[in-house]
Amino acid sequence: MKPNYIIIPLIVFLTAVIGSYFTGTGMDWYETINLPDWTPPGFIIGVVWTIIFILSAFSALIVWNKPKKNWLIILVFLINAGLNVFWSFLFFNQHLIGAAFFEAVLLNITVFILIFTIWPVSKLASLLLVPYALWTAFASFLTLFVWLIN
Q: Considering the entire predicted model, what is its pTM?
């Protein structure tokens, strides 16, 4: 078995766990702020993120297993993982909703960069990230709305 079949899912798993940790540190605060009526319930958010992380791991594995390594794509994947965790830190741990919104915009940009740079390498790997792009766009809009009403 190739090490990348362990390392890539491990990186994705650690991203999810660290982000979840920061989310958990702010749940008491989160329950006290104003949220729009269309905010999804927590269990839906958890299911969506689980699916997104699984799809992202498959996308990264497909890209990594190509004969010619594209180090720019790999770097953007890693930056994206860092931004993903950093949003949870800013929003839930630090309660910096405005900063979290601007950081979410950067997160969105990295997802779109990944989709477009992966497309020539693997259409499937690129398409696996479309739900991530849709969700982060929605989450950014939700973050902006939460910032505005608080």
A: 0.95
Neighbouring C-alpha atoms within 13 Å toward the C-beta of 58: 14
Query: Helices 97-118 and 130-149 sit at what angle, rounded to 10 degrees?
Result: 160
Per-residue pLDDT at 2 exceeds 90: no
The CATH class given to the 4-149 domain equals: mainly alpha
Contacts of 147 (CB under 8 A, 6+ apart): 97, 98, 100, 101
CA distances from 121 to 24, 30, 50, 63, 148 (A): 37, 40, 25, 7, 40
Measured in whole angstroms, how far is the alpha carbon of residue 19 from the centre of its chain? 9
Task: Take residue 32 and report the two structure tokens written for it.
Answer: 């006290």
DSSP for residue 89:
I
Instruction: Residue 136: name the closest of 90, 101, 99 by CA.
Output: 101
| Alpha-carbon span 30 to 37, nearest angstrom | 14
Residue 148 confidence class, pLDDT cut points 50, 70, 90: very high
